[in-house]
Amino acid sequence: MLKRTMLVAGIIMVIVMIASLGIFTGCKDQTVAEEEGVSTEAQEENTEETSSDAEEETEEVVEEAEEGPIVVIDGLDNEVTLEKPAEKVIVLAPSSLETVDALGGMDKVIGVDNWSVDNNEPLAEGFEGFGDYQGFNMEKIVEAAPDLLIVLSGHPPEDIERVKEYGISVYTAEVSSLESVYGEIINIGKMLGLEDKAVQVSDELKSRVEEIYSKVKDLGEDEKPKVFYMVYNEPLWSAGSGTFIDDLIMYAGGSNIVSADGIEGYAEYSAEKLLENNPDIIIAGDGGMYDAKTPDFILEDQRFASVNAVIDGDVYIVTEKYVVRPNQNSINGLTMLATAIHPDIFGDFEMIK
């Protein structure tokens, strides 16, 4: 019993891991200029230069007038205020770190989460860990004096409140849909003073998502294959409604049998239920707490021998980070799911590394 409790606790931890002078010249000036031997053309050039300088000064004044506190709403509907763009940022959310990188803001990062360091995440190379789901290294955080801390919703709330007491702004990333990813990218861009780049990245993602969705959005329910996404295999865990994985399945033109069962969030799903709902397609990630590195891991599991997906060989392994980390790279996850679910529309499945 103890072993199973520890296993389930571990699964939950992985799942939790799993988000903006008018110009005038007078006749008098022209007359004086002509009397002094200055040509009208030269006078016009001087006027143009003067007006150009005045316009630049005016633009600077306007820009300064528009500057002010940066206010965004995070994933938990908390208002986050920065007096100016953050220059020192600690990012304890791997998905957000990838967004910071896409925006060209890695020079502002001074620390990351322990998990990314321990697992040799490429973007974490050269950085120290400042905490994880077990808790924050408060002493290190206070000593580093960041302007901003980006965390996930699963981090200890008491630690988040303590960080705020030291005057450090905290942004909590909580994303459960592709629509919310767009806003998350903009928010991170605003906080880092990289909003223009964020708008570009967000718009590009939205365009690519709509390109895929446009090809499946009008399909009838009987044209949408039944899909089961395996988060963990023993016990079986999957993703129901309100999860990012469920949203990806919908945008890829599939029907998630778990959400169809009325199950919300990440939850245990019995093998009996799986057999009863008999999915056409089974998809699993290549990471997590088990080694489903190839489809054989599932195809050879006798519990699923009578499932249509196994009989027809429609079992696919996807690069897990593109499915469980909501950010601009999620387009890779959506692309893999779309080709797995509708190869007739999107072409044969290929794993994107």
Could you characterize what this model shows?
This protein is of the alpha/beta class. The protein is built from 17 helices and 15 strands. It has a 4-stranded parallel sheet with strand order 4-3-7-8, sandwiched between helices. It is globular and about 60 Å long. Mean pLDDT is 85; it is low at 1-9 and 19-65.
Helix-strand layout with pairing:
Layout: H1 2-17, H2 27-35, H3 40-66, E1 70-73, E2 79-82, E3 89-91, H4 94-102, E4 109-112, H5 114-118, E5 131-132, E6 135-136, H6 138-144, E7 148-152, H7 157-165, E8 169-173, H8 178-192, H9 195-213, E9 226-230, E10 232-233, E11 236-239, H10 244-251, E12 255-256, H11 257-260, E13 266-268, H12 271-277, E14 281-285, H13 296-299, H14 308-311, E15 315-318, H15 321-324, H16 330-341, H17 343-346
Parallel strand pairs: 3-4, 3-7, 7-8, 9-12, 9-14, 14-15
Antiparallel strand pairs: 1-2, 5-6, 10-11, 11-13
Helix pairs in contact: 8-9, 9-16
Structural class: alpha/beta
Rg over CA atoms:
27 Å
- Return the CATH class of the largest domain: Alpha Beta
Count of helical stretches: 17
The overall pLDDT average reads 85
Q: What is the count of distinct domains?
A: 2
Considering the protein shown, what is the CATH homologous superfamily of the largest domain?
Nitrogenase molybdenum iron protein domain
**Uncertain parts:** 1-9, 19-65
Which of globular, elongated, flat, extended, rod-shaped describes the shape?
globular
Sheet-strand content, in percent, reads 15-25%
Our measurement of the CA-to-CA distance between the termini, rounded to an integer number of angstroms, reads 38 Å
User: Count of DSSP E strands?
Assistant: 15
Q: Considering DSSP H and I runs of 4 or more, what fraction of the residues is helical?
A: 40-55%
Strand order of the largest sheet: 4-3-7-8
